[in-house]
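Instructor's aside before we start: the two examples that follow are unrelated to each other. I chose them only because their records fit on one page, so don't look for a connection. First example below.
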Amino acid sequence: MSHPPSSPPGIIPPRSDLPAGPVLWVHSTHTRAVLQTLLHRHPAPMHGYDLSKATDLKSGTLYPILKRLHEQGHLNADWEASPHPGKPPRHIYTLTASGISLARETPEWATKGIKGVLI
């Protein structure tokens, strides 16, 4: 009687009950909050400070998310001159077409109770 070979120690064999194909990437609650907030305000741009207030995210959490979404092509990040003389320009953020699609893929249950997210 022949038995299938067992996996080497530390290696988990693939599960046959999962569908084949690409794995859906699930974004963090914080990333979903940023996406949903930008989608709600689209096409109007938002400053990082406004996003921070709308989502209740601190800058150390928010700006890495914005940077990653921009690098992945989901956000436009443009410079805007400050309305206050002597102040540096600020980034304004808007969703790209792929960012809009990504934000719309977020299920409603995934953002319930997140400050600033209006669905």
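Example two begins here.
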Amino acid sequence: MQLTRIDLSIDRERHARIRYELSLRALSLAEIGRRAGVGTSAVSSVSLGKSKSARIESFLAEALGVSVGELFLDRYPAATGRSPMR
């Protein structure tokens, strides 16, 4: 049996912006993880685009004061409006 690999796009630029914007708010990926009840690696994985979690995406967006669609345009392409993250 051959395993099929799911190719999720890794977005290091978005990850760096998220980390930067969190730092401006005295927050970290670890703090988002605590709020969401998950590990830092799970938050980092979602931020990078390695995995998907609507719940973690929501915690990140809320912490940054943007909509989930603005933060994860590749996942929510119908999002409209100005994004302070771009």
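The mean pLDDT is 86.
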